[in-house]
Amino acid sequence: MEQQDKSSALLLGFLVFGALAVLTAVEFVLALTIKLWQFLVLIPLIKAGLVLYYYMHISRLFEADLDSDHESYTYKLLSNRIGLWLFLLSDAFIFGGLLLSRINLLGLTRPDLNQVLGLAVTSILLISSFFANRAEILMEFGDRKQFIINIAITMGLGILFLVGVLGVEWRLAPFGPADSIQGAIFYVMTGFHAFHVLTGVIFLAIVLRNGSRGLYSTERHWAVEACVVYWHFVDVVWFFFYPALYLIGTLAK
Amino acid sequence: MRKFFSLGLVHGLLWQILGTAIGIGILTGIRQLLGLAAWKAEPAIVFGALLGAMFFLYGVGVLDDWIRVAAGKEVPEHVDESGLGWRRYYGASLDHKVIGIQYLTLSLVLMVVGGTFALIFRTELANTGMQFLTLMEYNTLMSLHGIVMIVGILIGIAAFMNYLVPLLIGARDMAFPRLNAFAFWLAVPAGIILLSSLALGGFDTGWTGYPPLSVRAPIGMQMFFLGVSLAGFSTILGSLNIIVTIIRQRAPGMTPFRMPIFIWASIATSIISLTATQLIGLSFQMVMFQRLFGMGFFDPGKGGNPILFQHLFWFYSHPAVYVFVLPGLGLISEMLPVFTRKPLFGYKWVAISSIAIALIGFLVWGHHMFASGMAEYLRVPFMYSTLLVAVPTGVKFFSWLGTLWRGKITYEAPMLFLLAGIVVFLIGGLTGPPNATVSTDLHLTDTYFIVGHFHDTMFGGYVFPFFAAIYYWFPKMTGRRLNEKLGKLHFWLMAPAFIVLSLVMMRVGMLGMRRRIADYDPALNFVIDNKIMTMAAFIIALGVLVFLINVFWSIRKGEVATGNLWNSRSPEWQVPSPMPIYNYEKPFEVVGEPYDYGLPGSVYVKFKESE
Amino acid sequence: MRHVVIITILVIASTFLIHTGLTNIGLLPAEASAQSVEIDQLFGIYTWMISALFSLIMVVLVYCLIVFRRRKGETGDGAYITGNSALEIAWTAIPLILVVILAYIGGKSLGVIRRVDPSAMKVKVIAGQWYWQYQYPEYGVSSTDLYLPVGHQIDLLMTSNDVIHSFWVPEFRVKQDLVPGRTTELRITPTLIGEYKVRCAELCGTRHAYMEGLVNVVSQADFDKWISEQQSAAPADPALRGQQLAQDYGCANCHSSDGSEKIGPTWQHLYQSNVELSDGTSVVADDNYLKTAIVNSNLQIVKSFPANVMPDFSNTLDQTMVESLVAYIKTLK
Residue A222: which CATH number? Predict the structure, then answer.
C-alpha cells in the first residue's frame, strides 16, 4: 500500500463506494428497461473488480517481503494474507456452484420477489462495506476511537441485512422452500449467503470487542484486516446473487 | 484412569456424545416450539451429528487457542511438546510430524475397515443367490467400502503431505500448525458419522449418492452426506495449509525447480482439493436439504433436475481421482532415483506434468455421465479432454523408464512396491481410453470393467506407492526399520493377487457383469470368476495383515536405523532418525539439484555451521 | 545400440503375444446389433493399442530391472543422465497426436451408432423399481417383454417412474440411463435373432441386481404375429384387463392379491373395507378412494406404510386403465 495520508485514503474509499452505488443503480435501471442479461453479469464483474482492488487490496498479495525471517510478524502477515485469500477462493466455488445451479434450474426465469426489499438489503450491505473499509483505514492510521465506531456501524448494518433477508424477505416471500424450484433456489442461495453474513457479524463482534480493549495497533491488526476482507468478500458474493435472483430473467409463471 | 480421560481423543469422543444428545434435544425443542410434531428422527439425528462433531472438536482441544485469541488473550506461537511423549499422538498436537502420523494411523484404520467390508461382500458374491446378507446390507457395505476407502485415501495422502512437506522444504512446521491440527481432528468425527450409517438403516446408493434414489434412502444416507461434507472440509483446510507452506516456508536457495518432486505433486493435488471439493459438499448439502426441507433441486415433479446433481458431484469427484493419484505418482518419482542411483529423468517435465494433470482434470468430469442423459453435444468435447489427460500421464511413465535406464537398481521392499505401483497404474491407465471414448464407454460404463479400471488406478497411484512410502520413511518416523522379509512377503502376497483381481474384474465387466449388484445370474457363467476375485481379495487382506504385524512388531523390536538408511540426498535423511522434534536445528541452504545421483561431488543441501 | 535392437524385437513379439491372448479368450459377448459391430471395431483398435503400449513400457521396465540391476559387490551410482529434451518432446507430441486421432475416430464411431433412421419403430420404455414396461404406440400394445424385429432400427424412448435406471443388453453394447421427468433415447438395430436379457445398469435400490427383463429379437413375420396376438389378447372383461395391467405395470410387485405382506397394502378384501390412514383418520375404500390412490397415491397414505414409495402413474395410466384396475381390485375378496 502506497503512502497516503488518512484523508485521501478515506476519500478514495468514499469515491469507490460512490462508484459502486452508481453501478448498482444502473444495474437496477437496466433490469427494468433493457433486460439484457449480459449487462447484469458485466456490471457485477466491474463492481467485484473495484472491491477486490480498492477494498480488499488484492495487490498486497504480490508485495515483496521486507523481512525474510520466517518467524517475523511481517513475514507471517503475508502468509496469513495468502491463506485468507485461498480460503476465499475455495469458498467462491460453493457460491459459483450455487449460481450454476440457479442457471441450470431456472434458466431465464426468476422468482417473484419484492424488488424494493431486494434493493434495500443490497444497499445496506454495500453501505456496510463502505464503513468496513473506513474502519480498516482508520485502524491503519491509529485512530482507535473512529475505528470502533465504524466497525460497530458495519456490524449493525450487517445485522440489519440479516433481519431484512431472514426476518422480512423469508417471511414475505410468496413461496416456501418446498413449494417450487424458485423457492428452493431462493432459499438455498440466500441461506448460504446469510450464513456467511452471520459468521462475518460474529467476526466483527470479536474484532469490535478486542479493538475496544486496545489489542490492535497500526503495525499489528491482522484480525481487523482479515475480518474486513472477509466482509467485503461476502458483499462481492451478493453482487452476483442479487441480479441472479432479482434482476435477470422474466417472472416464472 | 484420570490419564485416560485426559487424552484428547477420549475427551473429544465424550464431548461428541454430549453434543449429539444436545443437538437432538435442541432440534426436537425447536420443532416443538414451531408447533410441529416434536420427534422426527432424521432432522434430529442430522443436527445431533453435526453438533456432535463440533463438540468433538472442542473436546479434543483444537479450538482452545483460537478461542483464546478471540477472547483477546496471548497465545504463544510455538508450543514445546517435547515432554509429552506418546500422549501427543492422542490429542491436539501442533507438530506436523505428529499430525502426519495421526493421519497415517487413521488412514490405516479406515482402509482396514473399508477392506473388511469388501471381504464381507466378496464372500457373499462368491456364490449366486444371497447367502447371509440382505440386499440392503449388501448395498450398504458396498457403498461404505467405496466411501471409506476414498476418505481413507484422502487421509493417507494428508498423512504424507503433512509429514513430508515441511521436512522436504526445510521448514520448521507447516505455515498454520493450529489449522493443521484442526483439519486432522475434524476427520475423526467425520469418519465416525460416516460409519454410524450402519446403525441407521444403511444406504443403498453407492458412494455416488445419486438422487432421486438418495432422497428416498434410509437415514444412514444423511450420515453419509454429512460425514463426507465434514471430511471434505478437512481436506480443503489441509490443502490450504500445504499451498501456503510451500509458497512461504522454503529454505533459502530452494527455487521452484530445485524443490523435491513430491512438493510439485503436493501443489498440484492441493490446487484441486482446495477448490473442487466444495462442489461435492454443495451437491450433498442440496440433497440433504431436499430430504429435510423438501427443496426440490433434483425432483422433476418440482421442476428439479436429477442430472444437475451429477454435474455438481462429478465436477469434484473426477478431479478427486487425481487428488488420489498425484501424490502417489509423486512419491514414485521421489523414491525411484534413490533406488536407481540416477537423477529423475526430465525432472522439469515431470513437475509440469503434475500441474497439467490437475488442470486438465477439471475439464473431464462429463465422461462419468456419457449414458446419463446429459446434453448430447457435451459428449464429444469431454471425450477429447479426457483422452488428453493421457499425455502428461505418459510423460511420467516415460520419465520413470528413463530413471531406470542405466541405473544401478536394488530391490528393497520400498522399491518392490514402487514397481508394483508403476505396473498396476500402467494397466489402469491403458484401460482409460476405452472408457474415455463414448461409444465403447456405453458398453463399459456401470460394469465391472470400470471397477477394475479404478481399482488399478487407485492401487497403482496410491496403495502401492503408499506402502512404498511407509517402508521407506518408517525409519525416519521411528528410528527403526520395518522387517525386510515380511515386507517382501507382503509384496508377493498383495501384488500378484491384486493384478489377478483387477484383470478378472475387467473380464467379467466386458462380458456383462454390471457393477453394484448384490447377486448375479448363474447363467452368465461368472461364478468361477467371482470365486477367483473373492480369493484374491482374501490374499490381499493377508498381505495387509502381514504388514500390520510388521508395523506393530517393528515399532518396538525393529532393527535400529538411525542414519541415512537409503543413502538419499534429501534433507530429512541428513539428520538422525527419528526426526528431531524441531526438524532442522541448523537450517540448510539449497546449493544443488535434488536428484544429481551419479554426479561426483554434487551436493543438494548444505547445513549452516553453528557460529 | 544393442539394447534398442533387443528391446524392439521383444516389444513387437510381446505386442503380438498379448494381442493374440486378449482376442482369443473371448472378452466380449456376441454381437447382436449393428451398434455392437461398430463398437467392437473400436475395441479392436484399443486391443492393439493396449497390447502395444503395455508391451513397450513393460519390456523396457523388465529389461532395465534385469540388465541394470546392481550386481554383488558393485559400488557407485548409476549413469548421470538428467533428461533428454528431444525424447521429452517426442513422447509428448506423439501421444498428443495419437489421442487426437483416437478422439476423432471415437467421434465418428459415435456418429455411426447414433445415426437417425426416420423409419425407425418407436417403443416407449418405462422403468420403475424394479420392473421394465414397454409400450408400442404405433400398435396400441403394451407388454413387460420387449419384442424387436431383426434388422430394423428401433428408437427406445425411455423414462423412469421413480429413480434413475439404465437399459443395457450387453449383446447390443449401448446403454442409456432412464431418468424420471425426462425422456432419454436409445437407438438399437438388432441383427441376431435370439433371446436376450436386459438388466438395469444403474444402481436403483435394493433389488437392482434382479431388475431384468426379456428381450426377444425375432423375424419380422414373428414380430407381426406377436403384435396381433397382443392386440387381440386384451380381454374385454374390465376385471381381467385390470389383472393384466396389474402385472404389466408392476402393481403386483408391491400389492399382493392374496393377503400376503409386501411393500404396499394388500388388495385382498380391500374394496369397501375400512382403511386407517397415517394422519389418524379412517376412510372407506370405495371407487373414489381407489382411483385417487392409484393416480395420486401420496394424498392419503395408509397407516404404517411408507410415503413417497409408490411411483407416479398419473401420466401412464389413463381413465379406462384406472377403471379396469379398480374393477379387478373389486374381485379380490
Answer: 1.20.120.80
With a CB cutoff of 8 Å and minimum separation 6, the contacts of C331 are C239
**Structural domains in chain A (count):** 1
A90 vs B274: CB contact, 8 Å cut-off? Answer: yes
Of all residues in chain B, the one with the smallest CA distance to A69 is B249
Q: Does B362 touch chain A (CB under 8 A)?
A: no
Cβ–Cβ < 8 Å for B67, B19 = no
Q: Which of C258, C282, C280, C270 is nearest to C325 (CA)?
A: C270
Concatenate the DSSP letters of all residues of A87-155 into one string: HHHHHHHHHHHHHHHHHHHHTTEE----HHHHHHHHHHHHHHHHHHHHHHHHHHTT-HHHHHHHHHHHH
The whole-angstrom separation of Cα B385 and Cα B453 is: 18
Amino acid sitting at position B469 = A
Output the DSSP codes for C233-256. HS-SSHHHHHHHHHHHTTHHHHS-
Question: Cα(B169)–Cα(B165) distance, rounded to whole angstroms?
Answer: 6
Q: How many helices (H) and strands (E) does chain B have?
A: 20, 2
C-alpha separations of A11 from A7, A15, A16, A24, C173 in Å: 6, 6, 9, 20, 69
Are C134 and C142 in contact by the 8 Å Cβ rule? The answer is: yes
Q: Is the pLDDT of residue A123 over 50?
A: yes
H-only helix segments in chain A: 6-32, 37-50, 73-106, 115-140, 144-162, 170-172, 181-212, 222-242
Nearest-Å Rg of the Cα atoms of chain B is: 24
d(CA C47, CA C12): 14
To the nearest whole Å, the CA of C272 is away from the closest chain B CA by: 31
- The C-alpha angle with vertex B293 and arms to B288 and B294, in degrees rounded to 5, equals 95
Nearest to B54 by CA among B239, B185, B240: B185
Are A136 and A225 a contacting pair, CB within 8 Å?
Answer: yes
Report pLDDT digits (tens) over A153-165. 999 999 999 999 9
Helix, strand or coil, per DSSP, at residue C154: strand
Provide the whole-model pTM.
Answer: 0.92
Residue-number span of the structural domain to which A176 is assigned: 2-251
Query: Given CB atoms, is B128 within the 8 Å cutoff of chain C?
Result: no
Of B134, B391, B407, the CB nearest to C78: B407
Q: Among all chains, which residue has been given the C-alpha cell 425432483?
A: B299
In the structure, what pLDDT confidence band is assigned to residue A1 with cuts at 50, 70 and 90?
very low
Strand boundaries in C91-153, DSSP class E:
121-128, 131-136, 141-143, 146-149
Task: With an 8 Å CB cutoff and a minimum of 3 pairs, decide whether chains C and A touch.
Answer: no
Q: How many CB atoms lie within 10 A of CB B511?
A: 19
| Residue B492 burial (10 A CB sphere; 0-12, 13-18, 19+) | middle
pLDDT along chain B (611 residues), means of 10: 85 96 96 90 96 97 95 88 85 95 97 98 95 95 97 97 98 96 98 97 96 96 98 97 97 96 98 97 97 95 95 97 98 97 97 97 97 95 97 97 96 98 98 97 97 98 98 97 97 98 97 96 94 98 98 96 95 95 93 95 89 50
Give me the helix-helix angle, B379-388 and B390-404, nearest 10°: 10
Chains in contact with chain C (at least 3 beta-carbon pairs closer than 8 A): B
The interface predicted TM-score of the complex, written ipTM, equals 0.95
Cα–Cα distance measured from residue A38 to residue A55, given in angstroms and rounded to the nearest whole number: 25
How remote is the C-alpha of A80 from its chain's centroid? 20
- Grid coordinates standing for A229? 476482507
